[in-house]
From TrEMBL:
Biased composition (Basic and acidic residues): 173-183
Active-site residue list: H408 (gmp-histidine intermediate)
Organism of origin: Halapricum desulfuricans
UniProt gene name: rtcB
Record GO biological process: tRNA splicing, via endonucleolytic cleavage and ligation
Record region (Disordered): 173-201
Lineage: Archaea, Methanobacteriati, Methanobacteriota, Stenosarchaea group, Halobacteria
Protein name per the record: tRNA-splicing ligase RtcB
Subunit structure: Monomer.
Record-listed Mn(2+) 1 binding positions: D100, H208
Length: 486
């Protein structure tokens, strides 16, 4: 197959797993989809390709817009989308970041084996569910004053370290060491701060979760050793973001940008791509507010880490330090950051928009923490409750192919409404427990139905595409032991 027809859009096969929508009309650049033929069929089932093509109309977009193998329809900009946009002559788009700013994942390794947990899964999942707030609305591990929230927004995980919720090694193993220095708390509305004030240290709802996992496969023993991973090891995966605060920031700035930059909006094929021109007051304000939300999300995941360590101490009657509960890495997947990339032979500062896409820097990039500078950045790709998750490392071709990015998960096949009409939550829980020995606890059966394994694409195939293209290399695979959800 050299071309693929998806209604009004025809893609040309550039090489294995690389498909291109050629530049035409008002497109500023081509668009590329990284997928196998079967994944491409799933991607073309909704408006993903149309949204990807629309993205190429954004001013200042360079090289090409990219859709990862887990791509699916989003708000204006597809989930799984990556766009590098000139930070001087281009724009920044809140819709190309998403409402859950710095939704991301972190993995905590332990020195425990699966045999240490086997038989105690129900006790552990109940204890985690009781201790870690989840679900819609308020309720977090920490509720502070307005000054506390401003400090969290400005300082990120440095605040958690000062307050006793983190140790220095946590900062050293977090993207950007857990702090975006461009954060501007004054650019965040009071309404956003008030929404976040009661949610610091909470999972939220939807596809967010905390999952205890065991390492089932090692693909690269040398890199796994550098990451501190081995077969049958217990690890903890946390997936959540900036909660109501990030959602409100996106809402606030979309509204303001739509009003202030109507001329630019009128030139775009979809108003959900509303963008502020680089250098404009709103571009600078949104960037500062977004960076503040990034810091908030890192603190959110850090407090959940603190609470998870305490639960493990209670259940297993050992200190978390004795159990080796160290942070492997924390990486964002809804973000736009100023990064320098080589485009057409010159180094250019770009707003790299990654929406449902994970940074995947190879060894040698200055942004990497010293622990991984020589091996490449850890990448964490969660699967569904009934499938494996993966740890990858930044691939050598990622900078050239994807602005240093890869997939962020399995990617949805089914809407939440369709999922609830197809699955019954209690049946899903029973089947996972009885047939796969995976213990799930959630606030409602509807949440479990929305996140049933059948709702998602094949994470193995998504990761295999990443590995084959050299943008994210397979290191290890994990499998769920128990899972808590909102």
């Amino acid at each position: 197959m050299t071309t693929y027809d998806a209604g009004d859009i025809t893609l040309q096969k550039i090489r294995e797993y690389v498909w291109e929508i050629p530049r035409e009309g008002e497109m500023n650049v081509p668009a590329r989809v990284l997928a196998s033929e079967s994944l491409l069929e799933e991607i073309s089932d909704d408006r993903t390709l149309e949204q990807l093509k629309n993205t190429t109309h954004l001013p200042g977009i360079r090289k090409y817009a990219v859709c990862m193998p887990d791509g699916h329809q989003g708000y204006g900009f597809p989930v799984g989308g990556v766009a590098g946009i000139d930070a001087e002559n281009g724009c920044i788009s809140p819709g190309a970041v998403g409402y859950d700013i710095n939704c991301g994942v972190r993995m905590i390794r332990t020195n425990m084996a699966y045999s240490d947990v086997e038989g105690r899964e129900e006790e552990l999942v109940d204890a985690l569910f009781d201790a870690i707030p989840s679900g819609l609305g308020g309720g977090g591990i920490f509720e502070g004053s307005r000054d506390d929230i401003d400090e969290i927004l400005a300082d990120g995980v440095e605040w958690a370290l000062r307050e006793g919720y983190a140790v220095p090694e946590d900062l050293a193993h977090c993207e950007d060491e857990g702090k975006r220095p461009d954060a501007d708390p004054d650019a965040v509305s009071q309404k956003a701060k008030d929404r976040g004030k009661a949610q610091v240290g909470s999972l939220g709802s939807g596809n967010h979760f905390l999952e205890v996992q065991r390492v089932t496969d090692i693909f690269d023993e040398d890199v796994a050793a550098e990451f501190g991973l081995r077969e049958e090891q217990i690890v903890v995966l946390i997936h959540c973001g900036s909660r109501g605060l990030g959602h409100q920031i996106c809402t606030d700035y979309l509204r303001e940008i739509e009003q202030a930059h109507q001329g630019l909006l009128n030139r775009l094929p979809d108003k959900e791509l509303a963008a502020a021109p680089a250098g404009s007051h709103l571009a600078e304000e949104y960037y500062g507010a977004m960076c503040a939300a990034i810091n908030f999300a890192w603190v959110n995941r850090q407090l959940i880490t603190h609470q998870a360590r305490a639960v493990f101490e209670d259940v297993f009657d050992r200190s978390w330090d004795d159990m080796g509960m160290e942070l492997l890495y924390d990486v964002a997947h809804n973000i736009a950051k100023k990064e320098t990339h080589t485009v057409d032979g010159e180094d250019v500062e770009l707003y790299v928009h990654r929406k449902g896409a994970t940074r995947a820097f190879p060894a040698g990039r200055p942004e990497l923490p010293p622990a991984y500078a020589d091996v490449g950045q850890p990448i964490i790709i969660p699967g569904s409750m009934g499938a494996g998750s993966y740890v990858l490392r930044g691939g050598e071709r990622s900078l050239e192919e994807t602005f240093g990015s890869t997939a962020h998960g399995a990617g949805r096949l089914m809407s939440r409404t369709e999922a609830k009409n197809t699955y019954w939550g209690e049946d899903v829980q029973d089947e996972l427990r009885d047939q796969q020995h995976v213990y799930v606890k959630a606030n409602s059966g509807a949440t479990v139905a929305e996140e049933a394994p059948g709702v998602y694409k094949d994470v193995d195939e998504v990761v295999n595409v990443s590995d084959a293209l050299g943008i994210g290399d397979k290191v290890a695979r994990t499998y769920p032991v128990c899972n808590i959800k909102g």
